[in-house]
Amino acid sequence: MTAILLGVLPVFAMIALGWGLKASGFIPAGSWPPIERLTYFVFYPGFLAPAVWKADFSALSAGPLAIGAVGGMTLVALAVLVAKPLLRLPDASYTSVFQGSLRWNTFVFLPLVALVYGPEGAGLGAMIMGALIPAINVVCVLVMSRWGEGQGGGLHAALRGLVQNPVLWGCGVGALLNVLRVPKLPVVMSTLDLLSAAALTLGLVVAGAGLSFGYVRSRRWLIASVSAVKLLVLPVLMWGLCRLAGGDETAQGVALLVGSAPGAAASYVLARQMGGDAPLMAGIVAFTTAASLVTIPLLLVVFGIS
User: Fold this and answer.
1) CA 32 to chain centre
2) Most exposed of 87, 167, 215, 273 (fewest Cβ within 10 Å)?
3) Domains in the chain: how many in total?
4) What residues make up the domain containing 203?
5) No. of H helices and E strands in the chain?
6) Around Cβ 170, how many Cβ atoms within 10 Å?
7) What is the CATH number of the domain that holds 58?
8) In Å, how far from its chain's centre is CA 229?
9) Quick one: which of 283, 242, 241 has its CA closest to 262?
């Protein structure tokens, strides 16, 4: 339990710092977009590329982890789609419920998996990000195109965004270097280590700065229900499928963290662009981020993962 808290608490301390810096006005609101852009397009790939490059996937439970993560995500997506007639929500609100049940904040996930499981977990985490991010983005855009108001961009815009996604580029470059067995020169690795440290810290601060709690109270039951699916049902499904597929303890822990990571700020951006319920989406992201401070260590302890 102590080891888990030592890994989780610093992550949420940085999120709280980001929220406080923005809420207090210490860093002006107009300064945050370029900070986020620098983190996402420069520092983030600088973390992902070496993590995948150094990973020994032949010795890791990459297969069972992929089965758990993809299988769990697929089951929840299908369940939310089947439940649409029963929810009796406006279409725009339904799209935010769908996104909120599935999408996860990689800014929070990566530092967690690196701190709790070290380089081995970071390599697995980067690998599963490369597999899940394209699929989730395409599915969410299809749902937005079907039920969002205005339908801003459609599938073509989503595919263009995937091609330009720095997360996928970072994972792809790392995988290529891994497959080609490119030597790891000390000066190169030291430089990438500096980028990695910046990515972990700034990514969390930016995630905190993006939180908005103003809408949570007005839709508290709906937001709490969506959050329960995201933070409890999805991680347990991923963990169970990974375990059934033969994943070791590290793979099971990474699967649990993938599922239990809070909602992604990118969901709010997509909701704004494609006619979703953006205030509801912002509330889900904020609530899941705050609640995951409790649910993540709880799940790790309950399922005996350390």
Assistant:
1) 20
2) 87
3) 1
4) 2-302
5) 15, 0
6) 25
7) 1.20.1530.20
8) 15
9) 283
